[in-house]
Please model this.
Amino acid sequence: MREFLLTDKDFSEISARVYDTCGIVLGPHKREMVYSRLARRIRANGLNSFEAYLSFLEENQDVEFSHFINAITTNLTSFFRENHHFEFLTKRIVPEIIARHKHDRRVRIWSAGCSTGEEPYSIAMTIANAFPSGWDVKVLATDLDSNVLGKASLGEYTANNVTGLDEDKLKKWFLRSADGAMYKVKPKLQSFIHFKRLNLLEPWPMKGPFDVIFCRNVLIYFDKETKDKLFEQYHDMLVPNGYLLIGHSETMGKEHLEFKNLGKTIYQKGQLNERV
Model:
């Protein structure tokens, strides 16, 4: 017998709250995940049911709502995940950026949905020595989940977290603990990155433009209407001919003629007159 009762009504209310706030669609197949994640919050608050938790959430929005959202969002990532994107960044995008910004020497890259930081740190490792001295190169790293942002900004990882990195990168960019169990990102690498909490469905405070936007394994949580809106916003945030990189399980509909599909989940911004 289960510890707590999760009724259809409770699940529907939870799903509606998550969708209204984040645009994330929780289908029936997510019911077990919702139970396990929110059961922890029920215990933490000394409650005895999902119904009681939802009432508590309504009465304590300021304190509990961020815990509620953080519990639901999933954060699975690794360093240099989908490495072909970083190879494309090195071989094609960086030379284009150098040519484009030879006068202003300003480079901006956005990691939208940065999770625990592996993606923005991978970007920073890729570009750290790619530009001539004196260039202003920054990575904006955002996520909805304040807990993972805190971990990302600390830049501390276990030995298991960094198993995909070669020894040269570990020596160059990380400080290893005496027992070899923990690795901390060096301040020089952290200096490239600005971490900020951002709900993609709320107004975006940054003005851009960005040369590259990484939005990988984030769009899978949204319905088509929300995805289409985000694709349009990303288009507006990119420099002419800038790039949008999405996750391996994500797609952009053929109706989005404002982007050129370059394959391998890589899209390039087209000109405004190319829109339908």
Summary: The chain has ten helices and ten strands. The longest strand covers residues 238-246. The beta strands are 106-112, 136-143, 156-158, 174-176, 182-185, 193-197, 210-215, 238-246, 259-263, 266-269. Residues 81 and 119 are 7 Å apart (CA to CA).
